[in-house]
Amino acid sequence: MQRIPFLSRILLFCLAFCTCLAKQPPWVMRISCGGRLDVHTAPTNTLWFKDFAYTGGIPANATRPSYISPPLKTLRYFPLSSGPNNCYNINNVPSGHYVVRVFFGLDGHPNFDNEPLFDISVEGTQIYSLKSGWTNQDDQVFTEALVFLNDGTASLCFHSTGHGDPAILSIEILQVDDRAYYFGPAWGSGIILRTAARLSCGNGKPKFDVDYSGDHWGGDRFWSAIKTFGQGSDLATSTESGIKMASNAPNFYPEALYQTALVSTDTQPDLAYTMDVDPNRNYSIWLHFAEIDSSVTTAGKRVFDILINGDAVFEEVDVVKMSGDRYTALVLNTTVAVNGRTLTISLHPKEGSQAIINAIEVFEIVAAESKTLLEEVRALQSLKSALGLPLRFGWNGDPCVPQQHPWNGADCLYDKTSSKWFIDGLGLDNQGLRGFLPNDISRLLHLQSINLSDNSIHGAIPPSIGSIAGLVVLDLSYNLFNGSIPESLGQLTSLRRLNLNGNSLSGRVPAALGGRLLHGTSFKYVAISGALKYLLALNGIHP
After folding, report:
1. pLDDT for 131-173, tens place per residue?
2. Of all helices (H) and strands (E), which one includes residue 189?
3. Number of helices followed by number of strands (H, E) in the chain
4. Is the separation of the CB atoms in 246 and 178 below 8 Å?
5. CB environment 502-537: b (16+ within 10 A), e (fewer)
6. What is the mean pLDDT of residues 276-293?
7. What span, in angstroms and rounded, lies between the C-alpha atoms of 165 and 163?
């Protein structure tokens, strides 16, 4: 028996190990919103997990707004009574790069808005706003974005805008390669790529990657079919020949994507595609080519320029030369700034046959919002529970971002040094609060103002408030606080206004606090028993 040398055995082991790693499937989570059971859907036998303990809202029977929507029977909607911000919080998500996709739903109930309009955010960054008429556009019944998830969780929030109740059919979180859609030095964890358009040219039927038998690491992209850019402006062509270099890392495009194309004509030599976009944004554009025209046999037979909004971004593109052969995939990427409301991609022939294109992808480049300090988010969540904050406040997600939808009653300030938001004010006066004030309020270290007046908050004033060094205003008047005034309030050297009247407090004003009042602090304290009354204000009166 022939022996394999030791080093060769190590090499074979390493190759086998690397091959095994390469074949590991991506992490996938698909949720059937409102579903009480896991379900598999035809024709691909896709698994959708039941909707359990991720969020609030109300489950209901679903109406699919489009034939491309997943064939699911339930949805979850969020009435305004549950608050303006509602979120799915998904835990145990491995750190990595993901496609996050949300399909919208319609509730068949007569009182339900036939076309709700709302905003969607991922990880605190707003990525999309539904536009009027979305139910009539197949490519608008969902939104998706490429995002890095690095803290073990995924947060997807739906923000009411006063035009019906947000209704969600499904949520997908699909892992992709860590380097997928790398577009240059600006790319990274601080960037979100929102899909603005994805077109399969010359194809007559919209498809997902799975319909193309695409690699699972591609994120199961949806490709809208476009048979023509304009009446008589081009011709569709196709091939059954195999395409080389298509399903390569990191984007793993399906081979079949390159087996159809649009080709310009003699009467209309330029190919041009125009789409609506949001103005004053940056867009990452990915153009796909493969020479599948049998009449083009060598390099130099088809050469064209590519222009975006009239500016040349690629000159003398020769697909055969640049890809290395016929029937070989070529992908070109560029980033453009768009000031207007349209984006036009033009292919202008220079040599030989007319222009050709197989597919187009357009992504809006979105800067990820900086989040609120985690310790302060947790403190607010504790406060929400202890005070019994009404659902209408919608304290879900991040308190400060997206900036279009901050929490009511919490004031935010951005710290450039730490690149984090923090809470510098609480304004929850006259909100019918009936709980107690927890010690955790002291974890809001950046507070300058607390106004909880005119509620029914009971219990003792937590001594921990005295550790909020920057506090300037503390108004706890007209509640049901009892016990004595904590000695620790005397440590609040920045305090300028303290209102404690209208409570069931008793005892003396702490000596340290009384001394502070000589230096201009406004103070109101009334003992309900009538045995003691203090009213100190800026006029210098003190006990």
Report:
1. 999 999 999 999 999 999 999 999 999 999 999 999 999 999 9
2. none
3. 4, 36
4. no
5. bbebeeebbeebbebbeeebebbbbbeeeeeebebe
6. 97
7. 7
| DSSP for residue 436 | B
Mean pLDDT within 347-367: 94
d(CA 444, CA 108): 44
Nearest to 224 by CA among 297, 140, 165: 140
**Cβ proximity of 120 and 143 under 8 Å:** yes
CA distances from 32 to 35, 161, 173, 420 (A): 5, 24, 12, 34
Range of lowest pLDDT (8-22, 101-115, 121-135, 187-201) = 8-22
pLDDT of residue 510: 82
> Per the structure block, which two tokens stand in for 19?
């091959």
pLDDT of residue 516: 57
Here the tokens at position 176 are 């992709």
- In the numeric block, the tokens 């069931």 are attached to 504
Q: How is 458-492 classified by DSSP, letter by letter?
A: EEPPPGGGGG-TT--EEE--SSEEEEPPPGGGGG-
| Structure-token pair, residue 173 | 């979180």
Cα–Cα distance list, 298 to 237, 255, 535 (Å): 18, 22, 94
> What per-residue string of b and e applies to 162-174 under the rule 16 or more CB within 10 Å gives b?
eebbbbbbbbbbb
pLDDT tens readout for residues 229-244? 998 889 999 999 999 9
Q: What is the pTM of this model?
A: 0.89
CA distance 37 to 249: 35
**Displacement of CA 480 from its chain's centroid (Å):** 41
Q: How many Å apart are CA 30 and CA 338, to the nearest integer? A: 34
Token pair in block for residue 303: 């050469």
DSSP annotation string for 342-406: EEEEEEEEEEES--EE-EEEEEEEEEPPPPBPHHHHHHHHHHHHHHT--GGG---S-SS-STTSP
The pLDDT of residue 175 is 98
Alpha carbons 525 and 281: distance in angstroms, whole number: 54
Instruction: Quote the pLDDT of residue 508.
Output: 84
Distance between CA atoms of residues 431 and 411, nearest Å: 16
Question: Would you list the DSSP string of 131-170?
Answer: -TTGGG-GGGSEEEEEEEE-SSEEEEEEEEEEES--EEEE
Give the span between the Cα atoms of 116 and 167, in whole angstroms: 8
Please provide the DSSP assignment of 272-297 as one string. Answer: EEEEE--SSEEEEEEEEE----TT--
